Amino acid sequence: MNAQIAAILAIDGIASGAIYVLIAIGFVLIFAVTRIIFVPFGDIAAFTALTLAGLENKQLPGTVGMVAVLAAMAALMEIFSLWRKGALDRIPRALFFYLVLPLMPAAIIWLTAGTMLPTPLRLLLTVAVILPIAPLLNRIVYQPIADATVLLLLIVSVALHFAMSGLGLLFFGPEGVRTQSLVDFTTFIAGTPVSGQAMLILGSAIFFSFLLYLFFNFTLYGKALHATAINRTGARLMGIRPQQACTIAFLLSSVLAAVSGILIAPVNTIFYDSGFLIGLKSFVGAIIGGMVSFPVTAVGSVFVGVLEGFAAFLSSPFKDVIVFSILIPVLLWRSYTLVHAEEEDEE
Amino acid sequence: MNRQITIAVGAVALLALFGAPLYLAPFSITLLNYIGVYSLIALGLVLLTGNAGMVSFGQASFMGIAAYATGWASAVMGYSPWLGLILALVLTGLVAAVLGAVTLRLGGHFLSLSTIAWGLALYFSFGNIPGLGAFDGIPSLPPISIGGIALADSGQIFYLIWGALLLSMLAIHNLLNSRVGRALRALRGGNALVESLGVNALQIRLITFVIAALCAALSGWLYAHMSRFVSPTPFDVTMSIIFLMMAMIGGSGYLLGAVVGAAIIILLRNGIQDVLPMIAPGSSGQLEVVVFASLFILFLQRARNGIVPFIAQWIPEPHRERPPQADALPRQQQPAKDTALMQVEAVTRRFGGLIAVNDVSFDVRAGEILALIGPNGAGKTTMFNVITGALQPSAGRITFAGKDITGANASKIAAAGIARTFQHVKLRPKMTLIDNVLLGTYGRASAGFIKSALRLDRAEEARARHEAMKQLDRVGLGDRPYELAGNLPLGNQRVLEIARALAADPVLLVLDEPAAGLRRQEKLALAELLRTLRAEGLTILLVEHDMEFVMGLVDRIVVMEFGCKLCEGDPAAVRADTRVQEAYLGGVA
Fold this sequence. Notes:
The complex is a heterodimer.
Chain A: H1 3-34, H2 41-56, H3 63-85, H4 91-111, H5 119-130, H6 133-142, H7 150-172, E1 186-189, E2 192-195, H8 196-218, H9 220-230, H10 232-237, H11 242-264, H12 274-288, H13 294-314, H14 319-325, H15 327-337
Chain B: H1 3-18, H2 20-23, H3 26-51, H4 59-76, H5 81-103, H6 108-128, E1 145-146, E2 149-150, H7 154-176, H8 179-186, H9 191-196, H10 201-227, H11 237-250, H12 255-279, H13 284-302, H14 307-312, E3 340-351, E4 354-365, E5 369-373, H15 380-387, E6 395-400, E7 403-404, H16 410-415, E8 418-420, H17 433-440, H18 449-453, H19 458-474, H20 490-503, E9 508-512, H21 520-535, E10 539-543, H22 547-551, E11 556-561, E12 564-569, H23 571-576, H24 578-585
Parallel strand pairs in B: 5-10, 5-11, 8-9, 9-10
Antiparallel strand pairs in B: 1-2, 3-4, 3-6, 6-7, 11-12
Helix pairs in contact in B: 3-7, 3-10, 3-11, 3-12, 4-5, 4-6, 4-10, 5-10, 7-10, 8-17, 11-12, 12-13, 17-19, 17-20, 19-20
């Protein structure tokens, strides 16, 4: 390996690392607010790529059907729980939020199916149709057990991932997709070629991380979320509704997942089940950050991306083995540096 | 249910099971074999998840390591499958020990997440190592043979599988009802309590983790020689979650839950594989995963405890006798009265900029009751935690019985002869009263995992039970030793903690607000008990708010205010001290 190859690998690695940054930050955000380790999060990114590819090929993407099924389930559960509480007057509102609102982007896609939309509109629609999936899953799967321990929520998450990847195959089919490049140029920095896509990925990662920073530090909703993350009961006493905070956390993180799905789609071939590995590699980054620190998570994710790039060059079949093996020294280091609050579950 | 009926039912069930190859069709026997093999893994998870509270998504890969080890040894190298078994157990045990040593210190969800990651890493490794047949796997493994008889037929290996399963269940049953087993079950509620009893929680976690991996290894070895073929697919992360599903649906707290869960999942899978292609031809494989995952989520939402406890609640509790008389456990030599037992010298504890305890010194003399009092926020609890090893002092020195114990951890301090209770009661509500008290005897007994599993600990166990019963009687809770601790009212729970501390045979008993939440009669009884203990030579240090309780009981008082020691002396002197009156009453009017 000479310096030229090393530089190219490093740039590739940083670009894929930047994707992991977006997903890892989403993981940490959801975990901090809801205590849920949302394993199917990578699947959301993969579904975004598949949706975008469907729109490019003028097909009706499977996402439309998926959102329709989830929205119907969530609406039924909500109506049933309102009916049992005897709060029938709140049903129209529930129908709007759980059925009409999530289905609007899907309806637009359904109506415009077959026509080639301009790129910005296509991207916007893709993000809009993906956004409801995670909050709807939250309503269907997690809300009934919001008081459960982190470990139980994790078991549920892993089961949910398998359900989602099965649904992914049913709705999207087994073919892999790769979308058109969003930008098409290559510059040379110090004699090393850098693709426009890599720069776009890096730029987006920085932009969205910065946006999140602004959100958390300078808006009331951001502070409310931050408060919920630190102390759920305390936030509740201050009039912050935990379920609402959860929904916001899921929505915001879904934006990050959707953006990373759009960014990765022109670079890698994405299958219905690609999300799991993408998600787990981001996890390694999130664990480096101890599942709490956003900046360390970002650094860790870039490190994972670069490591993966070099590992792929050295031994392609073993690149995933190498990336996951890095967890062992990372955990060893973490076990001595992380002061973890002990969870006192009395069953 | 009386004993004879239990034995009769058990004997008939065993006979029916081991006669199965005579009257069941070969297909049913094959299903039973799978149930047995998977029950073994689920059994490991019952121990790990249901009892010790750790969740692993890596059991399938442990099974895989074992299957590949024996596959390589027997099919590639041509050795005996029994050598393959040894290799499988050693290799899996080593891998589990290394992975566990690295991740168990973090515990909780970090452990579980990392199991997914190594599960995947091992899966990719199996599929990419050419010497192990890559994704094609290793074909034509030889059958296991016992005494020259090759167990090639499913009706033959059936006996080996179910024999191994029943023996493992027996061993784990013995283990759970032993000294280490109780410590393992107590891990669920967090480390603070178990460490204060002198248990090395990390070591117990690690051994439990390795035992669960060895169950998976045994299962992998049986699986490999049953299907006579090894490939990566059965050791995927999906299988790990199915194993977890078996344990949890059956009832992860119960050994029988492993078998019930495995049976239900395998029969259900078999049924679904027949039904789904009729509903959705073409995509049934993936639909099966969706159906299973959705059922599991629904189950976790609705009935987390599983099937066995659901059925068990209809079966009447067996009547259990009081533990019989036995020799007493060895006791510590109590130090001579009025010698200095513990010296606290200039101890300071800071939290960032806040000084919670500032340069406090006092002595505890053998055979006395010393009270540490002070208004709210005086630093009593911090002092208490520094003495018991829950917190490290920032400066200063603590010596106990001539030994320097400054900065020692909670389990070392427990071993030195200091037993404590907690301000917020820490009991194991799902364990019986006697089991909770038996936790206290941990440091006085010695039986380890192997001795316990083989039931060689019974003599020592009888002595420990006798001791626990004695302490229960002494605090007045001896009439219902098999009640669950969670059913007691708060006052009795406090007293139960004292019984647990006494079971440790301490030299110094440290009580954090023992009278809080007690009614007047109970307080009087507690004071009487503490007086008796003092008369027996025990030294007691207590932190208390209830002045009436303190003044009539203790020999000396140390008063703290704003982190500093205000004064010390006998109750009358302290009561007369104007500084104390000022601290409590805000100046004498």
